[in-house]
Design goal:
With 412 residues, this protein is of the alpha/beta class. It contains 14 helices and 19 strands. Helix 7 links the parallel strand 5 and strand 6 (180-185). It is globular, with a radius of gyration of 22 Å. The model is unreliable at 407-412 (pLDDT under 50).
């Protein structure tokens, strides 16, 4: 078994490789097709090898009144005069104090522009970090499988609060070579949101990260003579050129969006209805917005988004590039220069997959291909239910393990 070295870059798009000479020197390069959604959609796909209709993670928040961390705030829904940003901030901060079990990347976020009366309807989807045992309830991640197979690994850079890439990665030393070493680099995404990926600030960051990865690659090469290495990202970034105030649009149409149970993301508006009349009203108003559409059965089928219930909405409206909504659950959108979460068909939605080892012939690969590629490189069996494929062109055929064999191993 040859050891595997991988580097993950959050939000690195193919066009940015021109600023990263080391990464751009990789002999084999493919474009990575993203999932329709945000990071909470992409990470489970690449770590489990299955699409969202199986791993069931599409957004940070889902409709789940029975498990909401904000159940205790229900009395405040009748005190409209207290529903202000300072009050929301206080209630959110207090809630986080007794929801410490949530160790995911987002934790319990502040629902900035959502009325308090709706807070108790929602729960966060992720309750633990991606590499934590049992991250997904239905499917094991690559981290879970390696633990079950008694195959050691090392994750560097995924510790929230331990500093940026340069604090966590620059000082890393390869004291012991594990079968799989995984470097996580997340700052390209945040820089792209605040500056744009083609901005001087982000370009300078990417150049520094390129040098950082090259240094770690060379240090690894001095310890290991024969290994597999690949680099991948989950999505790209697209410049924001238009901002839409959906609250204002509802008001102009003689309605108030706060009449309806809803969540407004950067480029998604999700609604839950009490009756058909509410649905008809919302659909009519959404029809006046230019540049978007309501996701239907065709999109749910095409992008593997069919869910077993309405946890992510009775209606999901998608706003296309280059627009975003303002006054979302995340904030006001004024500082967002660039965004992702758009249709995978947009070229700038693509991520990257880079390797020094020959890859299969294809213009694009998928996030679900990451898990089988790692497992086949480590000469470990790939679960039969996996949606992805191994990307190695030769010499590393994937051996598929039947589902019952996998479950026997998981149950001991």
């Amino acid at each position: 078994m040859k050891p595997v070295l991988t580097f993950f870059f959050d939000a690195l798009k193919p066009g940015s490789l021109q600023y990263m000479p080391f990464l751009n020197s990789f002999a084999h390069q493919r474009r990575m097709t993203t999932e329709l959604g945000y990071s909470v959609t992409c990470h489970p796909s690449m770590y489990s090898g299955v699409h969202p209709d199986k791993h069931l993670q599409w957004f940070v928040w889902r409709y789940a009144p029975e498990t909401s961390p904000f159940q205790w705030t229900k009395p405040f829904r009748y005190l409209g005069f207290l529903d202000t940003l300072p009050t929301r901030y206080f209630l959110h901060k207090y809630t986080r104090q007794f929801r410490r079990k949530n160790t995911s990347w987002f934790g319990v976020p502040l629902l900035v522009n959502l009325p308090l009366k709706y807070w108790s309807s929602f729960d966060v989807v992720e309750d633990r970090s991606w590499d934590t045992p049992g991250y997904l309830k239905q499917y094991p991640t690559v981290f879970d499988i390696l633990r079950e197979q008694k195959t050691d690994f090392e994750v560097v850079g995924m510790v929230k609060g331990a500093g940026d890439e340069f604090a966590q990665i620059e000082g890393h030393e390869f004291r012991e070579i594990k079968p799989w070493t995984y470097f996580f680099l997340g700052s390209v995404d945040s820089y792209s949101h605040h500056h744009g990926q083609d901005a001087p600030e982000t370009i300078e960051l990417m150049k520094r990260l390129d040098r950082l990865v090259e240094e770690q690659f060379e240090a690894y090469s001095r310890r290991v003579k024969d290994f597999d290495v690949f680099v991948f990202s989950d999505h790209g970034h697209i410049r924001v050129e238009k901002r839409i105030d959906i609250q204002k649009i509802f008001k102009e149409q003689g309605s108030n969006i706060n009449r309806f149970l809803h969540l407004i993301e950067a480029n998604y508006a999700r609604f839950w209805f009490r009756n058909d009349r509410e649905r008809a009203t919302v659909e009519k108003i959404l029809g006046t917005i230019e540049g978007g559409f309501i996701l239907g059965d065709a999109e749910f089928e095409k992008y593997h988004l069919k869910m077993p219930d309405n946890r992510y909405g009775d209606l999901v409206y998608y706003l296309d590039t280059p627009a975003i909504f303002t006054k979302t659950i995340w904030g006001f959108g004024k500082t967002q220069k660039s965004m992702h979460g758009y249709l995978p068909e947009h070229a700038e939605s693509d991520g990257v997959f880079l390797s020094q080892t020959p890859l299969i012939e294809a213009s694009h690969v998928e996030l679900v291909d990451v898990l089988p590629t790692i497992l086949s490189s480590l000469e470990l069996p790939v679960p039969a239910y996996v949606d992805g494929r191994s990307l190695w062109a030769e010499g590393k055929p994937a051996r598929y393990m039947e589902d019952d064999e996998l479950m026997e191993q998981r149950l001991g």
